[in-house]
């Protein structure tokens, strides 16, 4: 690890300091390096973990065995970043940001040594931390989170060692359902314990119900409306069951997939602006509000939801990469923006595909929007074509204007990525009536003559017209 | 067949006459019937063939064996239409439209009987006819078109009877490549003879080249730059080879997939407006220009290309169905429009997926547009996820403005329907720079962290910026 390089500051070149060596931070560093030579811009990046630029979203597929080894999930290693003249310091935690002084205090985790590093420009990409329930037994052996590669390895080690075959997943969001698939693939009996009334609370409950039924069809036991109160351990100290208010679910292994929160402890201490969802607030160029030379991106920021007009927190690698690209461009003196999100997400449990974009019913109400809904069932291919699979599409449109507000899709192969049609239409502010005329790819192996999204749009347009007189 | 019903005209109800009982015509009739009762609107439809509402696009999959029987391709039978109070007259050809008199002359093909039927409103949905080369041998036994179900059945009969296993497909557009797949699936040695420099002239030649290579990889012999001069027959009168200017290709069966032209003979005789591509010209409500009570739709019309601003002819079931819906609504006194197309098409040859939307390079030049191009290679899923497949995406953007002009995609599973992202973006008039920020569905089984379409947009945006100073 060459720290000397960092201190060898020439008179004119600027120093960019990056806190966090994952998607947003290292994308920012790489993009800045593409645009500025080491003579113009020195780049120092701090990462407290063992890995850089890894795909957290890939962990369920590594645990489940679809991805054979950990290293496949690392997009770029520390060595590769260093070869591109980024002074990347691993296992080094930033413990303070001194905004007034334009410097950060770093601590080498292994040696405990601390030092200040000054910056001309700062990027905060501290990511998110998993929500760990504050309950007895949450730290017992056999209870695992799945946020980092170390977490994934620890879980795989447990799965390899454990003889029992009963797994309980706490949480039924994306991580929860993906981990349910991973554990099914490894031959476990899987129970998913969920606080909500249906799995996938990022969908409306009527669509979540379809996920529920499909998961049970896959042999997964789904327990809804259940709050985990404690994790019970055996005489050996290891997990033996998960307890809710009503029942106990025996478990040889427990996976916590409850979600994440922005990691903004440092930013908060430094007095930087934090939003209602605990994320850093930035402008559209990803500059921290009120700070000309500080940017933030990835899982630690809030982003503008283009449909509701409000800030949201969404932890997703695809956004983190885009933020990094925008930050790197701006930090290197260029110009780029991240205009916001429409809230697109796609996931799967075995062969069940789940997708959503835009607002759910409750989001629309919260935003003060009145809406109509339309739900249709159609197929991924022409009905007569082999492997044509059913899918359900739900669409929300604004009352009177007919503007598309959101789409949710649950189905089999070919269902999930159809959400992109709606994501682009939402971004463009299209009405459902306009969507009916969209010129989408049609051939029998790819779509019915009316694409399912268009069938939903047609029904939604009808509902808008029926309601306009009210 | 109840003709009496048609003559039993009450004093006030109107009569809608539909010429052509396939997608556009019967969609129009069905939609009009949904909106108007038989007491308000009488609907008479003439179809000269044996079938209604069938999927011509499905014929290659029926011939190839993916679709087990013909009846699966019939979306709605004549009996089903009649049960919904549509007076459908099969095997009845309209041989004249008398616009001034508001009537059409029909001929019962089997009996030869002719009669006039008056109309208050008329729908022309006469479809397209295949281009049959005017050359010796084109009508020989063993030479087949694939436009109608009768054509499909005749080809299947030939394939069943013929002992030889050599097939020549003339034409390398959608029909040609899909028929190549069908014949491969039936165990034939397939040669495709193509006039252009590469297959799929709906793509630029550099992308067609990828299709060429993939087809050869599938064991299909691809002959480009070859004009078929005659079809040679044996002593038994059956086809034995296809001759070009340079060579002869032995053939036990020949499939003609050269394309289609609007069937507008009747419309032309009636003095209705015909465009540069031989199609009827309509307004955006699908009303024949200058004729308040005549509509036309489906393969016999020209449509507005929203990207170039010009009329085009595109024979595609998905458009025909939309036209029918719009016409039926308007003919029943409602309001709907078909705003135009962006030229989206998707197809496959075995596991190779081919898609395009918007303008090719030559279309852009013809429209007076200057453009930049970007071509990238990426994968359908995260690189580390199983079955992640390569795809090539080519993007055209307008010089200076950066407006998206077109996208072409060639790849394997997951490539084809990605064109919908671009189709919606084209419709919305987005720039490639705006597309870079699109919030598309991301999870490792569905997409790399940067969707291939976004990677192409990023590269195209760079090319636009590099070129803006010029």
TrEMBL record, chains A, B:
One of its GO terms (molecular function) is oxidoreductase activity. InterPro entries: FAD-bd_OxRdtase (IPR050260), FAD/NAD-bd_sf (IPR036188), FAD/NAD-binding_dom (IPR023753), FAD/NAD-linked_Rdtase_dimer_sf (IPR016156), Pyr_nucl-diS_OxRdtase_dimer (IPR004099). It comes from the Bacteria. Residues 15-321 form the FAD/NAD(P)-binding domain. It holds the Pfam family Pyr_redox_dim. The lineage of its organism: Bacteria, Bacillati, Actinomycetota, Actinomycetes, Kitasatosporales. SUPFAM superfamilies: FAD/NAD(P)-binding domain, FAD/NAD-linked reductases, dimerisation (C-terminal) domain. Belongs to the class-III pyridine nucleotide-disulfide oxidoreductase family. It comes from Streptomyces cyaneochromogenes. Residues 347-449 form the Pyridine nucleotide-disulphide oxidoreductase dimerisation domain. Its cofactor is FAD. This is Flavoprotein oxidoreductase. Keywords: FAD, Flavoprotein, Oxidoreductase, Redox-active center.
């Amino acid at each position: 690890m060459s720290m000397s390089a960092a201190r060898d500051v020439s008179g004119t070149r600027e120093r960019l300091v990056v806190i966090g060596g994952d998607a947003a931070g290292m994308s920012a560093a790489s993009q800045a390096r593409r645009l500025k030579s080491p003579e113009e811009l020195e780049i120092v990046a701090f990462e407290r973990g063992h890995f850089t630029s890894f795909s957290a979203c890939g962990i369920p597929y590594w645990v489940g065995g679809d991805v054979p080894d950990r290293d496949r999930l690392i997009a770029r290693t520390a060595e590769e970043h260093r070869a591109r003249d980024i002074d990347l310091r691993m296992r080094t935690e930033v413990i303070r940001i001194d905004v007034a002084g334009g410097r950060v205090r770093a601590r080498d985790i292994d040696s405990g040594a601390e030092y200040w590093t000054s910056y001309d420009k700062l990027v905060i990409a501290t990511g998110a931390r998993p929500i760990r329930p504050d309950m007895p037994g949450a730290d017992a052996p056999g209870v695992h989170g799945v946020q980092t590669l170390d977490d994934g390895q620890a879980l795989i080690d447990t799965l390899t060692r454990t003889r029992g075959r009963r797994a309980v997943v706490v949480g039924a969001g994306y991580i929860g359902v993906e981990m349910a698939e991973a554990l099914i693939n490894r031959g476990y009996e899987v129970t998913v314990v969920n606080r909500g009334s249906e799995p996938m609370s990022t969908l409306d409950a009527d669509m979540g119900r379809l996920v529920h039924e499909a998961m049970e069809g896959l042999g997964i036991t789904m327990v809804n409306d259940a709050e985990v109160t404690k994790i019970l351990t055996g005489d050996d100290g290891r997990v033996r069951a998960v307890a809710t208010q009503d029942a106990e679910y025996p478990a040889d292994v427990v996976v916590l997939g409850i979600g994440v929160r922005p990691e903004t402890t440092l930013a908060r201490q430094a007095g930087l602006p934090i939003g209602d969802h605990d994320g850093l607030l930035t402008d559209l160029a990803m500059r921290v509000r009120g700070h000309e030379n500080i940017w933030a991106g990835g899982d630690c920021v809030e982003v503008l939801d283009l449909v509701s007009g409000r800030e949201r927190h969404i932890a997703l690698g695809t956004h983190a990469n885009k933020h990094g690209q925008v930050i790197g461009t701006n930090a290197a003196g260029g110009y780029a923006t991240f205009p916001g999100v429409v809230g697109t997400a796609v996931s799967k449990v075995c062969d069940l595909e789940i997708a959503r974009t835009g607002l759910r019913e409750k989001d629309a109400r919260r935003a003060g929007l009145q809406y109509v809904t339309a739900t249709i069932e159609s197929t991924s291919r022409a009905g007569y074509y082999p492997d044509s699979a059913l899918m359900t599409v739900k669409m929300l449109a604004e009352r009177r204007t007919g503007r598309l507000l959101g789409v949710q899709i649950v189905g089999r192969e070919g269902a999930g990525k159809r959400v992109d049609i709606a994501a682009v239409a939402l971004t463009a502010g299209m009405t459902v009536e306009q969507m009916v005329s969209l010129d989408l790819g049609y051939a029998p192996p790819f779509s019915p003559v009316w694409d399912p999204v268009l069938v939903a749009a047609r029904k939604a347009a009808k509902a808008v017209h029926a309601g306009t007189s009210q």
